[in-house]
């Protein structure tokens, strides 16, 4: 198994959109390793968040990588619009696209690629693609809205991902997204997660830097 340092990726979905540049700087100052961008189209999930222009605006001041999570029905069609600003682009295994082709196209565009699965989707759905990805995102809430409670029943998939990574000699990161707080982060890490997406628990924390440190286990 490849050992990765624990990363915390504050989710911009939870920031004050009206103060985007200041919020990006605040998340970075708090110790965020990446900035997570949840793109929702109102079809794949029942919410609409933001699109390429918002991500480009965040990228103007960000000095850490942007981790773009496409919760959209046609990621194969739309991902090129995020290539300019994203470091990593994650697509869903359940969306309407040829998963292998989309992952290869993201790589060909010079970006790392991730694959995500919903809580109801079995780990077996992503197993055929593990050799093609840089990151596996296990959703720990039903995707679509921020602020939901963490679902501990998703942890077997995190363990399965860690076991498969070790067995196959792969190096992808294991990311969790949804309900990650100073209380739930240790459980996710214990089960094999190394990348923690945290929205409300960072941006609404009285001390964002202390929250990031606690989630990272420092």
CATH class wording = Alpha Beta
Q: Taking strands numbered 1, 2, ... along the chain, how are they ordered across the largest sheet?
A: 1-8-7-6-5-4-3-2
Shape: globular
**CATH homolog superfamily:** Aldolase class I
Strand content: 15-25%
Q: What structural class do helix, strand and pairing data support?
A: alpha/beta
First-last Cα distance: 22 Å
CATH architecture: Alpha-Beta Barrel
What does the largest sheet look like? 8 strands, parallel
How many helical elements? 8
- Compute the number of strand runs: 8
CATH topology: TIM Barrel
- The tally of domains stands at 1
User: Low-confidence segments, ≥5 residues, pLDDT <50?
Assistant: none
Q: Report the C-alpha radius of gyration, rounded.
A: 16 Å
Model description:
The structure is a single chain. This protein is α/β, with parallel strands linked by helices. It has a single domain (7-216), classed as Alpha-Beta Barrel (TIM Barrel), CATH 3.20.20.70. 30% of the residues lie in helices and 19% in strands. It contains eight helices and eight strands, in the order βαβαβαβαββαβαβαα. The chain has helices at 20-29, 52-59, 75-78, 99-108, 155-168, 185-190, 200-203, 208-216, and strands at 7-10, 35-40, 66-71, 88-92, 112-117, 135-139, 173-177, 195-198. An eight-stranded parallel β-sheet has the order 1-8-7-6-5-4-3-2. The longest helix is centred in the last third of the chain and has 14 residues, at 155-168. The radius of gyration is 16 Å and the shape is globular. The two termini are 22 Å apart. The model has no long low-confidence stretch (mean pLDDT 96).
């Amino acid at each position: 198994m490849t050992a990765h340092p624990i990363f915390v990726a504050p989710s911009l979905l939870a920031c004050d959109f009206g103060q985007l540049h200041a919020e990006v700087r605040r998340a970075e100052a708090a110790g965020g390793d990446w900035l997570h961008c949840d793109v929702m189209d109102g079809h794949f999930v029942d919410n609409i968040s933001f699109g390429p222009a918002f991500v480009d605006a965040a990228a103007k001041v960000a000095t850490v990588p942007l981790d773009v999570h496409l919760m959209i029905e046609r990621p194969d069609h739309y991902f090129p619009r995020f290539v300019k600003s994203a470091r990593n682009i994650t697509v869903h295994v359940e969306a309407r696209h040829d998963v292998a082709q989309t992952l290869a196209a993201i790589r060909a565009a010079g970006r790392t690629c991730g694959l995500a699965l919903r809580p109801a989707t079995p780990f077996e759905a992503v197993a055929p693609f593990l050799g093609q990805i840089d990151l596996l995102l296990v959703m720990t809430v039903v995707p679509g809205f921020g602020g939901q409670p963490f679902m501990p029943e998703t942890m077997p998939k995190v363990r399965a991902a860690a076991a498969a990574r070790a067995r196959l000699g792969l190096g992808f990161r294991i990311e969790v997204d949804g309900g990650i707080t100073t209380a739930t982060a240790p459980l996710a890490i214990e089960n094999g997660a190394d990348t923690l997406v945290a929205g409300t628990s960072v941006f609404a924390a009285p001390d964002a830097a202390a929250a990031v440190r606690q989630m990272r286990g420092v």
